Amino acid sequence: MPRLFALDHNFPKPIVDVLGKFQTDAELVRISDIDARMPDLDDWEVLLALHQHERDFDGLITQDGSMLNLERELSVLVQTKLTLVVALKSGDSPVKATGLLFAYLAGICNRTDPSTPQVWRLNAAERSGDPTWDYLTRLASKRNSSAQEIYTRSRLTKAELARNPLGDE
After folding, report:
1. 8-state DSSP, 130
2. Containing H/E element for 22?
3. Which residues pair with 121 in a beta bridge?
4. CA count, 13 A, side-chain hemisphere, 85
5. 60 forms bridges with which residues in the sheet?
6. Is residue 28 a contact partner of residue 55, using CB atoms and an 8 Å limit?
7. Residue 149: band (very low, low, confident or very high) from pLDDT cuts 50, 70, 90
8. Structure confidence by residue, pLDDT tens digits, 92-147
């Protein structure tokens, strides 16, 4: 049986609708679809409304990391035994947050315990790219060689580099 999560309003509906077709672990219901008044409630009131709702909600999915620093919200979370899923460090990018959610959703659903309040913090750290030469060096180390030897042996000639593999000859 799929888990039932309320989804805050910051997740783009078109993306959620499309991606939702490819997962069966959870039913995601926008808080405004649960009750049109819900988006106007304080976060702790949303949690309480989910706990009191006729449907057996497992928790709330949000991008609002500030909830993790609010006494009332955390206390209500403990009392209601709901799960809170927070897409952190997604900046102001609802697309990034939605990607994070769907990347982790199956695992969250499989490990959520309805008798224990839980917080799932989803992160996507911004990193700079790695120098390609570092990967060549690691590969060479595994092959008891040097990066320069592998590069010299495997690189394209000037003529090969100039030829378009899709072009007409």
Report:
1. P
2. none
3. 86
4. 29
5. 6, 84
6. no
7. very high
8. 678 888 999 999 999 999 999 989 999 999 987 777 888 899 999 999 999 999 99
Between CA 113 and CA 124 the distance in angstroms is: 24
Nearest to 53 by CA among 28, 76, 34, 72: 34
**Residue appearing with tokens 């997740």:** 11
User: What pLDDT, on a 0 to 100 scale, did the predictor assign at position 89?
Assistant: 64
| Rounded alpha-carbon distances, angstroms, from residue 30 to 57, 60, 129, 154 | 12, 10, 36, 53
- Which helix (H) or strand (E) segment holds residue 29: the answer is strand 26-30
Length of the chain: 169
What is the number of other CB atoms lying within 10 angstroms of the CB of residue 163? 12
pTM of the model: 0.79
> What confidence score (pLDDT) does residue 169 get?
56
**Domains in the chain, please, with CATH?**
3-122 (3.40.50), 132-162 (no CATH)
Q: Which two tokens stand for residue 81?
A: 């035994």
Tokens coding 97: 């947050």
Q: Which residues contact 9 (CB under 8 A, 6 or more apart)?
A: 30, 31, 32, 39
